[in-house]
Amino acid sequence: MTLSPQDLRRLVDEPASRAGVSAVELTDAVLARIDALQPVTNAYITVTSELARADARLVDERRAQGEPLGRLAGMPVALKDNIDVAGVPGTRGSDWFRGRVPDADAEVARRLRAAGAVIVGKTTLHEFAYGATTNNPHYGACRNPWDPERVPGGSSGGSGAALGADQCLAALGTDTGGSVRIPAALNNVSALRPTYGLVSNRGTFPISASLDTVGPMARAIEDVAHVFAAIAGYDRDDPWAIEHAYEDPLAWLDYGSPTLAGVRIGLPTTFFFDDVEPAIARNARAAGDVLAGLGAELREIDVPGADHAVDAATQLIRAEALALHRERLDADPGRFGEDVRRRLELGHAISGADVAEAIVRMREWRVRMLRVFDDVDILLTPTTNATAPRIDDAEMIATTAQLTRFTYAWSLAWMPAVSVPSGLDCSGLPTGVQLAAAPYRDAVALRCGHALQQVTDWHRARPPV
Questions:
Q1: Do the domain assignments include residue 207?
Q2: Is 155 tagged catalytic?
Q3: What is the pTM of this model?
Q4: pLDDT, tens digit, 9 for 90 and up, residues 305-326
Q5: Is 422 a catalytic residue?
Q6: Which residues contact 79 (CB under 8 A, 6 or more apart)?
Q7: Which CATH number do you get for residue 369?
Q8: pLDDT tens for residues 13-70?
Q9: Does any domain span residue 465?
Q10: Pfam families, from UniProt (predicted)?
Q11: Is 257 labeled as catalytic in the residue annotation?
């Protein structure tokens, strides 16, 4: 049976409807969708059609034989191209690694495949994952399916655009300061930045090891949660992993009628609703009202020092990115895209004393946030303060600073945060709302996002393409 785009849309929107569909049929439908829309979105650097079909056939064979299958059996998943897949080119979005083919899976790729996921390709990213536009000079600009003249966000822009256009059912990105949450908001899909250290970074190319994490993305939080459950867990071979107990991310999925009784949701009174487009703020507050209607308690709360947290995160990211690329930058600066080169060079102004001070501020900010979570379970903010800017207007450094304004602070605190769709603005562009929780309480943020999506259909809206 050949699945139509309408069939595929239903299968994306209704996970329960996938039970009777073969992995080969679903994979073929996604590959056809990629083929049809790749000229529009440029969401992929590499499409792994042969690998995907082989893995899909294996899932169907095991299903026919009655063998136990993983939680992601047959799900077509895309990976950002700074996450290694054995035998598949891993460019890291750069000219430096064009033609590089790793011989081993990243740990998250290994866990995805063990859970039965079908890898359909490697998605476009900002060069070296160091920018929020995904306007890549080496592999072409990735374009937002809601308006191909606009950016998809970044740096996991290809993962966001692919999901927004139904070119996969789930994706992985990496999030240093907002790089899964921003593309989720701008493409009308969902994403989780997990608690730092819960998901292995082994086999991924970093920006800032102090803040980086792999994050799952999908249209619905339900799928985000299933992917997170598959990839989370301690990896002793990852020097940045943290061994810590965390809540079952799937425990709340059995709720037939969503209730958030007893959940305390804080709306920051300063910073996170300042200098934001009116429709974005309005839609975020409307999402809060929906959650209150499900039994959550809304309360205004002071979150002092967020602006200073953003400054500290900026310092750390610039210093660590420069340290990572210093030899390449000294050897051949012209091999970098002009925007990434300029952003890397900003790191030269940061001294060792500046880094030491930023680390102190990071630790103080984490303690301050733990105190905030004595009074609330969730902090609700807009994900971004602007909708997707036009490609021609998006000067990368300024655009990155703008779009990360509300995401950096949670990264610095190593907190989990989900971004879920919150509606459209007056121009028909998506907006997102961010739900952040205390470290290791990823499940609380996922539960609230899932409850929101059970009683709204914002995440089901599709772009004109």
A1: yes
A2: yes
A3: 0.98
A4: 999 999 999 999 999 999 999 9
A5: no
A6: 85, 106, 108, 109, 112, 119, 121, 122, 123, 159, 171, 172
A7: 3.90.1300.10
A8: 999 999 889 999 999 999 999 999 999 999 999 999 999 999 999 999 999 999 999 9
A9: no
A10: Amidase
A11: no
